């Protein structure tokens, strides 16, 4: 009376395949209490699930006893009515058991999927609020793994692990009670045979754990290669350098190792199943052999032998499962701990209690003796998210030194200077992507650290050099700035950004997909679409990083015109690469090594000499000559 491997056997094999070293890990105090706080909304469903499992276990033990009664009280005594009645009872219990299994699955799914939703939503919301330095240091794949693998592992505490433990305890208790009542001698011998399976199972489990870890690493390497090669930039690099054959060979090598690991896993799994089924079959043979002999000599009735054999099929699964319960529980708890590790990471750029919205009206930008250095890894990240053993705590060098300036409402301030001078850092401090180490950054006279994030986002519009677009439609990328924008507002924004003519030519118009990171658009088109998005937002302060060096003359002229529209009437801070922008600036700040070394208008700084004149002759002289040639009489 052996049974084919079912879900319980699969769970047992997976349990033995898990890394036993997990039991040596120490969980932070309060972890279990926090886990139960997640489960609190589902306590009634969990209670119902446990009740259904208890009833299911009772049915599992009652059935063999009914078989015993059918044989002893019905068949052997030629009582047809007893046989029919008890058979109907068995059939009714089968229907009830099927209904119970559906109820168990429903409760388990509701609890499991509910926990997954709650944890994923909470982790995603928390990560969304982390500062930019967090994302510059952590691996995207590690973050995604927390949202997927660890969340899935954590929810198993209340689904597969809980149901397995509770179901096994109920089934084992009732089964052993029934078997000892029927024949304690046969039951003891059956239990003695259990180590014949457990000892080799542990050895196979260690092998499976090693193979599983290796398969995860190989799978991650293969997925990483696909991710890097299948985005536009990676595919372009492969085609430019003409190495598709080498790429094919490299991927085939990784895929072959994954294949080989899969074969080994399948074989070890089959050995595991075969060992469990072999021990169960030997024990069943023992029951029929020894019990049958006793039945022949009248010391045991036939129905009892059949009942013992049936009960035996329910004995080894729970025993084996409970023998590895500490690994199951700790594996799930560690997954919870890894989720909590992310949730407990505090943002170093946070909205203070009592923060107030920025005042309305024209807004100024003020830097007051600002010093800044980028945060260390220890301040913003986790070692497990960077694939390092210990985070680097070495303080970073200062990037800005005593930076002080004011951009009055409606004025244009241009930032110029050599690469690495601190221009981008200043632009990021305006919108509070980072916090200063000392000094203050003020918008509309209010320290940005005292303002609400929402009011800062509404006040400041930011266009970076490499404008990012989501893999979505033009419309979706535009309304990201203003979800309630009307059709007329969308077209007005693209008209002002000098990109409406292009959109009119597209078959799907505003509903055209822009591709991964906007790669279906040219550099100038992406810039103008980003400016249209900014115009739709209509901020009071504009921060722009000009990106005209890689544009052709026609695209450059369109972008410049769009820039002019975006800056008109707004307080503007521009990292300037064009002479025309610099000439229009009310104030030019010349930065070098994180310090403002010169400030003034274009004419004044040229007359003053110094670094600005040097930059003018090396970076802007060609533009000046081109402008003079364009305006010369033909």
Key structural traits:
634 residues, alpha/beta, 6-stranded mixed β-sheet, 4-stranded antiparallel β-sheet, 25 helices, 64% helix, elongated, disordered N terminus
Structural overview:
With 634 residues, the chain is an alpha/beta fold. The chain has 25 helices and ten strands. The protein has helices at 7-17, 31-39, 43-75, 80-128, 132-137, 140-155, 157-192, 195-230, 232-240, 244-296, 302-312, 316-323, 325-343, 377-380, 383-386, 423-430, 453-459, 474-479, 487-496, 500-505, 523-537, 553-567, 579-584, 602-608, 610-631; strands at residues 365-373, 398-407, 412-416, 438-443, 446-447, 460-463, 541-545, 571-575, 587-592, 595-600. The protein has a six-stranded mixed β-sheet with strand order 6-7-8-3-9-10, sandwiched between helices. A four-stranded antiparallel β-sheet has the order 2-1-4-5, with helices on one face. α3 packs parallel to α7 and α3 runs antiparallel to α11. The relative contact order is 0.09.
Rounded to an integer in angstroms, the radius of gyration calculated over CA atoms is 35 Å
Order of adjacent strands in the largest pleated sheet: 6-7-8-3-9-10
What best-fitting shape do the alpha-carbon axes yield?
elongated
* Annotation, overall tally of beta strands: 10
The largest sheet, given as strand count, sense and whether it forms a barrel, is:
6 strands, mixed
pLDDT averaged over residues = 83
Please give the count of helices.
25
* Termini gap: 103 Å
């Amino acid at each position: 009376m052996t049974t084919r491997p079912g879900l319980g056997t699969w769970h047992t094999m997976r349990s033995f395949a898990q890394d036993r070293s997990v039991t040596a890990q120490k969980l932070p105090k309060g972890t279990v209490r926090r886990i139960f706080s997640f489960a609190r909304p589902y306590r009634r469903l969990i209670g119902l699930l446990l009740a259904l499992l208890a009833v299911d276990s009772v049915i599992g033990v009652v059935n063999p006893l009914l078989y015993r009664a059918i044989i002893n009280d019905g068949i052997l005594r030629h009582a047809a009515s007893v046989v029919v009645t008890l058979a109907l009872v068995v059939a009714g219990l089968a229907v009830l058991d099927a209904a119970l299994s559906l109820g168990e699955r429903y409760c388990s799914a509701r609890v499991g999927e509910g926990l997954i939703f709650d944890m994923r939503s909470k982790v995603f919301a928390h990560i969304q609020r982390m500062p930019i330095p967090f994302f510059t240091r952590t691996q995207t794949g590690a973050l995604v793994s927390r949202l997927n693998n660890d969340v899935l592992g954590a929810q198993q505490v209340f689904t597969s692990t809980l149901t397995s433990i509770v179901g096994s305890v109920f089934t084992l208790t009732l089964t052993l009670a029934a078997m000892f009542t029927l024949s304690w001698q046969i039951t003891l011998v059956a239990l003695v045979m259990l180590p014949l399976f457990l000892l080799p199972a542990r050895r196979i489990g260690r092998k499976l754990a090693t193979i599983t870890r290796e398969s995860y690493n190989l799978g991650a390497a293969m997925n990483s290669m696909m991710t890097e090669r299948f985005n536009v930039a990676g595919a372009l690099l492969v085609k430019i350098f003409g190495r598709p054959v080498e790429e094919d060979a490299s991927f085939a090598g990784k895929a072959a190792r994954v294949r080989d690991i899969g074969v080994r896993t399948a074989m070890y799994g089959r050995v595991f199943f075969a060992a469990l089924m072999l021990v169960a079959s030997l024990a069943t043979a023992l029951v029929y052999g020894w019990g049958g002999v006793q039945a022949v000599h009248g010391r045991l009735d036939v129905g009892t032998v059949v009942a013992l054999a049936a009960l035996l099929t329910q004995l080894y699964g729970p025993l084996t499962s409970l023998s590895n319960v500490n690994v199951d529980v700790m594996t799930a708890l560690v997954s919870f701990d890894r989720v909590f590790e992310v949730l407990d990471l505090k943002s170093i750029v946070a909205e203070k209690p009592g923060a107030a919205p920025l005042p309305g009206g024209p807004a100024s930008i003020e830097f007051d003796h600002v010093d800044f250095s980028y945060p260390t890894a220890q301040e913003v990240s986790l070692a497990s998210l960077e694939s390092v053993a210990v985070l680097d705590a070495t303080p970073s060098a200062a990037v800005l030194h005593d930076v002080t300036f004011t951009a009055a409402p409606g004025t244009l301030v241009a930032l110029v200077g050599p690469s690495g001078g601190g221009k981008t850092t200043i632009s990021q401090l305006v919108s509070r992507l980072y916090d200063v180490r000392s000094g203050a950054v003020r918008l509309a006279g209010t320290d940005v650290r005292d303002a609400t994030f929402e009011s800062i986002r509404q006040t400041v519009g930011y266009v970076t050099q490499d404008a990012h677009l989501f893999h979505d439609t033009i419309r979706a990328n535009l309304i990201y700035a203003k979800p309630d924008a009307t059709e007329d507002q969308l077209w007005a924004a693209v008209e002002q950004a000098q990109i409406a003519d292009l959109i009119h030519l597209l078959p799907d118009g505003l509903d055209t997909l822009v591709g991964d990171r906007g790669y279906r658009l040219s550099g100038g088109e992406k810039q103008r679409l980003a400016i249209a998005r900014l115009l739709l937002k209509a901020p009071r302060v504009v921060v722009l990083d000009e990106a005209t060096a890689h544009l052709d003359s026609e695209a450059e002229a369109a972008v410049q015109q769009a820039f002019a529209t975006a800056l008109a009437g707004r307080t503007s801070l521009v990292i300037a690469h064009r002479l025309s922008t610099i000439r229009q600036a009310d104030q030019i700040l010349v930065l070098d090594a994180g310090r403002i070394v010169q400030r003034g208008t274009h004419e004044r700084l040229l007359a003053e000499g110094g670094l600005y004149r040097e930059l003018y002759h090396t970076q802007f002289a060609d533009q000046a000559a081109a402008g003079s040639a364009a305006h010369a009489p033909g």
